[in-house]
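Curious: can you check?
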Amino acid sequence: MAEQHILDRIAAATRRRLAEEMAAVPPAQLWRAARQQVEATGDAGRRAFEAALARPGVSFICEVKKASPSAGVIAHDFPYLRIADDYAAAGAAALSVLTEPDFFQGDPRYLSEIAAKVPLPALRKDFVVDPYQLYQSRLLGASAVLLIVALLGDRLADYVLIADALGLAALVEVHDEAETELATAAGARVIGVNHRDLRTFTVDLGLSERLRPLIPEDVVLVAESGITTPADVQRLRQIGVDAVLVGETLMKAADKAARLGELAGGSR
C-alpha cells in the first residue's frame, strides 16, 4: 500500500479532533456565537486583511510557526507574542498564525492572544475540512482563513460564501492549473500559490510564474513557501505578485525584524 499523502494524514487528524470539539460545542451553537460577533463588529477584519495585501509594492504576511512536517521543530523557544510584535514593528502587513497541533505544534490560543494584542490582521493557518473551523476562526479573532483547494475541491465555493458571511477573508491556496481554475470559479478574491509540493516537499518558485496568467488582475495574488532572499521577492514582484507569505526564513532568524527588512529590500 502506498504511503498516505501528508495532506491526507493532516486532514484525518483534523477530523478526529473536530469530532471531539463538536461533541463538546455543537456546530449550531458555535455558528450562532460567530454570527452574533459579526452582527456586533462586522467585517472590519476581512477588509483590513485584503487591503493590507493590496497596498503598493509587495506586502509581507509573516508567519508565527513553531514546527512543520518538512522542517521539524523550528523554534524550541517560542515567544509567539513577541515574535508577532517584532513582525508588526518591522513593517509586516499581516500575520499568519499556525493553529494545527499535531503536525505544526500550533494552538488556537496563539491566534486568540495575538489577535487580541497585536494590531495586524491575522490569518488562521490551519487545514479546513469543515465549516465548524470557520466559526471557530471568527471567535478566535482571525481576520482571514486558509482554504486549501486540494482539501475542499468542488466544495470550495460554499466555504468562500461561509467565510464572507462571517466577515472573514479567504486565502484560497492552489498548487496547479486545475486548482487555480476552481479558485477563480469560486469567486476567490485572494489566491495563494504554494510553491511547496506537499508530496515531495520540494519547492519551485516558478509555479507562481506559471499560474500568474490564469489569475485575474483584480484578484490579490500571494506567493507562499520557499522565499528566502531579496532576489526571490524581486522575482515575484516582477510578475505581479501582491504579497508573499514567509515562514521558516523568518522563524529561523535570530533577528527577525532585521531579516524581514532585508527581504523587503526586494519588494520595491
Q: What stands out?
A: The CA atoms of residues 150 and 179 lie 7 Å apart.
